[in-house]
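Q&A log
Question type: sequence-to-structure
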Amino acid sequence: MNVKEVVPFLSVSSMEQSIRFYIDGLGFAFRHKWEPDGKLRWCWLTLGGASLMLQEFTNRPGPGGINLTFMCDDAIALYRQYQSLGASEPEVGNGLWVTQVTDPDGYKLFFESPTDVAEDTKLSEVAST
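Response status: OK
Response body:
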């Protein structure tokens, strides 16, 4: 099966406060993190068998809600499978290929898989796919 797990993705107003709460307070640990220019911008945290992702957005217009992120082996294959549902062109973010579909109630479902391709690269920019 291509899809391995779903990970809630929370938009946070202060990464520093969120890290204190989730790591120092609740006991979560870093699984992955993204630190451009030495500043933590995104992280994947785990606690036992549970995971969640946090990202601080500078232009956040109020509460960000919840997005569901499905970790998988091949997000590009799922993009091709879900194109008729309006899947977005895969793009690399946080070291992952990311494609997105929106459900009928407006929830965003992200399908992501690890990659070594450069950040912000779109699938259409990669010659050998």
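Response note: The CA atoms of residues 31 and 45 lie 5 Å apart.
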